[in-house]
């Protein structure tokens, strides 16, 4: 059972950069629910989109899988034993918990959970790839190369789902939407101090792009179709189809 996220509830002299460590694993479901507007809708939607794009005898990749919520959604929605989900994360703590969660379900679709740097991945015979709030944690210089590799590993008609926190295209709008998001977190029980300390921890760790920057990467990689299928405040999920 998930614990309440109180990681930043007390004053911290020097806030360290955010890490997906054991402390975060213990509170992660609560943290996501209270911090990311529309997260449950995105997870449900990933399963629904998988029903449209996953093909028999192909692979599905969940990159930066954390506790495997997207993987579970896909397994439940598609559950084709001829397919395989490969769920990867570079956090040992996340992977250990994800393996426990996935093994507690009896779906026909097999899943391989592994601790890996997604930049080292080789994508083959993929019909569906998920980057659910993952790309924003990679250095900007690595993002296009990963997008290119994903495109090359997708079968024709395969899809990439990319969920990200966005920077809005105009400064004033961006600042106002950020304020609204902070109010969202306050309504979910976070204090001003928690919000400020979490923001400091994520500075230079979570680096968001604009929607146009994501679209340019899709186009550069070779995707023929791409659009936004969901957005709540400055949190969005995009789809790109080969």
TrEMBL record:
The Methyltransferase domain, residue ranges: 60-158
Purpose of the protein: Catalyzes the conversion of S-adenosyl-L-methionine (SAM) to carboxy-S-adenosyl-L-methionine (Cx-SAM).
Assembly mode: Homodimer.
Name of the protein this chain belongs to: Carboxy-S-adenosyl-L-methionine synthase
Key word Transferase present: yes
Residues annotated for S-adenosyl-L-methionine binding in this entry: 39, 64-66, 89-90, 117-118, 132, 199
Ribonucleoprotein listed as a keyword: no
Enzyme class per UniProt: transferase
InterPro entries, per database record: CmoA (IPR005271), Methyltransf_25 (IPR041698), SAM-dependent_MTases_sf (IPR029063)
CDD domains: AdoMet_MTases (cd02440)
Similarity section: Belongs to the class I-like SAM-binding methyltransferase superfamily. Cx-SAM synthase family.
